[in-house]
Amino acid sequence: MAYKIDLRGDCSSKYEQSPSAIFMSLFFQQVPLGPMANYVYLIGDHACKELAVIDPAWDIAAIRKIASEHGFTITSALITHGHPDHINAVEDLLQQENAKVYMHKDEVPWIEGWKETAIATGHGDAINIGQYTVQVIHTPGHTEGSQCFLLGDKMLSGDTLFIDGCGRTDLPGGNAEKLYYTFTDIIKNLPADIMIYPGHDYAHDKCQRLSQQLQTNPYLRAHSKQDFLSMVQPGFKSL
């Protein structure tokens, strides 16, 4: 049974608002950072002034500057997976902010340094950022504990799903068959109108609807597991 992780702090009294007022208080920003074309995402609630950083990496000063300019306090970090290019600023963040770090339970064992402070998440968990609810979707394949974050019609897909691409499966923790089933059993069953926000800037578009990706992304269009494996593992041969 899913449990709720509440990041609201002492701001709950501010939540008696109309739906339009709630929508207007959302802060969402896609931030390109680092030499590997990463996207860091910021999700905040203007009513509560709490901000979550998704995959804090490369330049914590730049991230904190954006937060400060908009009057936010960074209270949490949500991790899509544990590869260094997505988490190499977590320690700096923890040294400068009283923030909690949320990572999938299958990913935590791979982490060193701040492992003991990480809060383990699981598929279906809900993380509240102010009045906004982020749903955890476990999407193994790129790594064992990869997870996507669904916020309304936005899905932050980390390195699981790119625009017209997908994450590598030949790195530690990767598993091509699991990624195939992530796509067939999970991603393809999500609402087609959600917007995909990937973990890297690898395409012309910064984001796209899942409906469009279902038509153009070759990994989502694979006709069979063998077809998929032949694309993600060039040396794969069907038996």
Description:
This protein has 239 residues and is α/β, with parallel strands linked by helices. The protein has a single domain, classed as Metallo-beta-lactamase, Chain A. The protein contains seven helices and 15 strands. The chain has helices at residues 19-24, 60-69, 84-87, 90-96, 176-185, 210-216, 225-232, and strands spanning 4-6, 26-33, 38-45, 50-54, 73-78, 100-104, 118-121, 126-129, 132-138, 147-151, 154-158, 161-162, 165-166, 195-198, 208-209. Strands 1-8-9-10-11-14-15 form a seven-stranded mixed sheet. Strands 2-3-4-5-6-7 form a six-stranded mixed sheet. The protein has a two-stranded antiparallel ribbon with strand order 12-13. A hairpin with a 2-residue loop joins strand 8 and strand 9. It is globular and about 50 Å long. The termini are far apart.
Which features would summarize this protein structure in a list?
disordered N terminus; Metallo-beta-lactamase, Chain A; 239 residues; 29% strand; 7 helices; 15 strands; alpha/beta
CATH uppermost class: Alpha Beta
Low-pLDDT ranges? 1-22
Distance between the termini: 39 Å
Fraction of residues in helix: 10-25%
Q: Would you give the CATH topology?
A: Metallo-beta-lactamase, Chain A
Instruction: Specify Rg, calculated over alpha carbons.
Output: 18 Å
What is the H/E string? Answer: EHEEEHEHHEEEEEEEEHEEHH
Shape: globular
Number of strands: 15
Whole-number count of domains = 1
Structural class: alpha/beta
- Percent strand equals 25-35%
The CATH architecture is 4-Layer Sandwich
CATH superfamily: Ribonuclease Z/Hydroxyacylglutathione hydrolase-like
Q: Tell me, rounded to a whole number, the average pLDDT.
A: 89
